[in-house]
Batch of 2 targets.
Target 1
Amino acid sequence: MEGQKNDFGQGSVAGNIMAMAVPMTVAQILNVLYNIVDRMYIGHIPGESSLALTGVGLTFPIISMVTAFSNLYGMGGSPLCSIARGEGKLERAEEIMENSFWMLVGTGVILTVFFLAVQKPLLYAFGASDDTISYAVSYLTIYLLGNLFVMVGLGMNPFINAQGFGKVGMVTVGLGAVINLILDPVFIFGLNMGVQGAALATIFSQFCSAVWVLRFLTGKKAILHLHLRRPRMNWALCRQIVSLGTSSFVMNFTNSVVQIACNRQLQIYGGDLYVGVMTILNSIREVLVMPANGLTNGAQPVLSFNYGARKNGRVKQGIRFTTMICVLYTCMAWALTLLFPGFFIQIFNDEPGLLQAGVGAMHIYFFGFCFMALQFSGQAVFVGLGQAKYAVTFSLLRKVVIVVPLTFLLPLIPGVGLYGVFLAEPISNVLGGCACFFTMLAVIWNRKLREDT
């Protein structure tokens, strides 16, 4: 009976995807609120909003690295877990989940100690100035002390979704987001803690999410159960988890690399003001990509399960549906950034100078945003079907091969200057998105998948 629960091999493929995608999209939006809400409140601290917002923005590369390691094990283990469940191998699926958990815990401890030791020189290397370094260090120190909660909550939630409990996964994130939303104004303004209050609210809310995740996965309602006994590591299995999770890791890690490159270039060509603009644009982008990420993350367990069950016709249906919805959504999101740039920017900061600088940068940065749909769809298929090599390749291509070099080269062109930093992103969306999607069609659609007879 347990093996028949949440059977993605039955019923409408689109219905199965949406049943997972809707709560996962809500969860993605709530998840990004952890940092977005912090920035919204920080951007309105009287007398210090601009420098405080820029300082917190400088911590993004390190926070992205923490997220990268969470996804390395969570997004690496959960598709393997879904494939094993589709094959009816429940004991193997549980073993995958347990190995992922202990890798999360071990890595979390190591990252906390390492970044606490080197945070200040790293932040200066990332583009901090003497005016912004105190805000960055104040926020990051507290965040790192709760790093283990962040990694367990983010890394283990995909195993709830992989079992078909999308609504439970949504509650996991929603619980923390609501607590963070309540505590932020209390700590930042009520207790006059500033950026330290924002960080404290974030890690306390992540602690609550982590407790919720562990309680569910060790409880009776789960199909696959996490046994918190002495670690029994299967190193061959760990290598498979890391191999498949590397694409998600690379996507987040290369985000860090891109943020570092952008901040350094903007500090050279525009100073703290334009580093602040990039902080806001990254925040807006995080919000806008969440529905697309929610859809593709919701599609992954459905694709993985049917691929494991050898139902290739249903896999193709899932790919078609996911791509179509992604394209429609990203076109709409692009239109909104063109029509209402000032509205989005003022959510985070309403200083006239920052608003004036941000509108033009925003039009450039989000140009061709619809091509991101091709990247999202292609990556979801590669990861869902366990094609680690392709998933990693296209994660590296868009950010490391295209964005980073262009971030340094485009500002050198006469008449382009600092706007070249913002122009690198849309160019990578077009080139990287097309390369990823059309390779997926050639390799997966035309070779690996065959219609059921």
Note: The radius of gyration is 21 Å.
Target 2
Amino acid sequence: MKRRILTLCFVACLSIAAMAQDNDKTPYLTKSLSGDAISNVTVSTSAGGIMVSGASGQSPRVEVYIHGSNNHEQLSKEEIQKRLDEDYDLNVAVDGHELKATVKTKHDHMDWKRGLNISFKIYVPENVSTNLRTSGGGIQLDNLKGKEDFSTSGGGLMINSLSGNIHGRTSGGGIQVANSNDDIDLQTSGGGIQAKNCKGNIKLVTSGGGIQFKNLDGVINAHTSGGGIEGKHISGELITNTSGGGIALDDMDCSLDASSSAGSVDVKMTHVGKYLKLNTSSGNISLKLPGKQGLDLNLNADRINEEVASNFHGTWTKTNVNGSVNGGGIPVDVHANDGINVTFN
């Protein structure tokens, strides 16, 4: 699991580095938006990254960064203009309250040795909705309130301080999301996911890496077929599963349904919500439960620790536990092909 998390961090660093490269360059084109009340941003580019920021203290504007598809190729402004004229339609315009920034190729069959990487950095007020598409770079969003719909097949997603309806997709990189609220739906098939300090209805899905989350509150669905799952400080309800690694959850104050078909499960509960369900078909389960909460236990495994909990009433054997703790109440269902070790705080 540690290796997968390191891979996730590495992917994120690559996304940050790519954005930093653009930061070091002078924009090819800058368009002021100070006279426009922008409420929507639409961007489409086939070979470049997109950044949209609603942070305060910035003059509203669009910056366009252009370089050769081969980053080692140094192009003059004149050569860039020549390639734009011959091979691309680049349009940056405001229509009503909508900013549109689009890049289209003029030919069905491009000579990609002459290709250009065209990226956008856009600074707008925070109450802005977006529709962003790129197949050749990462997407970065921060300090926005609205409906944000964005996708890329060629880079990672970096999201910070968004609220509203957040819908993001990538098949070519990892995802980082932080300090965001309301409806969050993020998926990748090409990397891991990190989420922290978020609240609301949260859906995180990857088939290409692990998931790591911290300080989440709400109804959370987190699923991966390509790595392990690590979580800490979760409240509300969490439904999570993996077929590509183990699960480690700490300081959980929630309803929880966690399962793995490829590793062990380690869960520490400070309080159980409406239910607790744990399952693994390929490993052990280690479970720490709150000692003063009323629970109904249903545990099944090849072996279960023989130390009977205090205030337990029912049947406790080496392979099955069925009964109540502290008078019963919340259902706790735990199943493992190997062993279960259950303790109480």
Note: The longest strand covers residues 265-280.
